[in-house]
Amino acid sequence: MSEPDYNGIDREGGYDVKKALLTGIYLVIATVSMSGCWSQLELNDRGFVQAVAIDKKEDGGFRLSTLFYKPSGSEQGSKSSSAMPYFTVVTEGETIFEATRDITLALGRKAQWSHMRVLLIGEEVVGGKGMSKELDYFIRDHEVRGVVSVMITAGKAGPYLKIKPIIENTFAQQLKTIGEQGHRFTAKTMQVSLTELHIRSLEQVPLSMVPYVRLDPLDKKKAGVSGLVVVDMKSGMRKAVIPSEQSRYVLMLNNQFESGILKIPCDSDGKRRKGASVAKESFEVVRSHTKINPIVHGDRVTLHISISVEGTIGELKCSSPISESGEGQFIVKVEQLLLREASETMEMLQKERIDVIDAGGRLYRKQLKTWKRLSPEWESRFAASDYRIRVKVKMMNSGVGAAVPLS
User: Fold this and answer.
1) pLDDT > 90: what percent of the chain?
2) What's the CA gap between 373 and 298, in Å, rounded?
């Protein structure tokens, strides 16, 4: 018998029936599998979620405010061009899962979570059983992406979703970009995702810094990200609030400082005098790297902290770094500022007993036996630890033209 070729036709002109039958079966399976969506839901059966705000109810349940994006076609858009492309649905439930499922009763569509940008958590929720427990539904749900930004609000979270955005289509997208760009260019806040918070809850020191959203004190119709909230991801308790001005140095100690501006006082000692207005210069940090090495002698912990910074002059008021000696003097002023601010920040962290620089995690990864011995009382050991800070500043350039002192 002749052998069939690749078309299922043998060399004498006959057909290979078995091979032709298998090919037909494969084609039918492929056609059926590509015939529609796996969930059998059309686009007009879905509502696309942009943001969620979680608040506690008086009876212990949850109030969920869900922001949906409302797309409009050209015909609908021409009739009402001023209409906002979003709306909010409020649901309640004993669990977050129940509150999310009840969205269908108000909306008439199934909530689609894959386009979610921001998760806002009211500060009342940060407590009790643990914030990671409240996030459990969003971590487990297969539609919610792990890159969703998580933020904590001053007061209840729901009202923030009603704020009119300045430039973005929704306030959720505005908060997302504020977190990203604020971390990148100001170092006064940071961005934290669902996945990162879940990982922190499993760490030896389960402390996480979460962006803090607050109303503008001058305009209550506006809000922004300002500062950081330190949360124990296991106990769920809020440990401290770090103001935006000090956030940059916390991020620098934690090796998460991308870029930002340092304000350098013109007075010689740099002390803050009450009622005195001191002229300040600015130095833009372009690159920063911090290394922390915990050394243990007996029960005493010493943290050796090395900070390396590269940057450029941003603004001068009282310096003239146009010569080699002048440049050296300006670098010394920047190094003194960083040493002073880093030391004050360490004192604050020790006073609050919050190891957000992950010194305990570093000790765990390098000296497991020592960590097991010290970990039961790590908060108090961190608060009592010594630290040695070394700062090195490199100036990349001194700006445009010859710098002339203005005072």
Assistant:
1) 49
2) 10
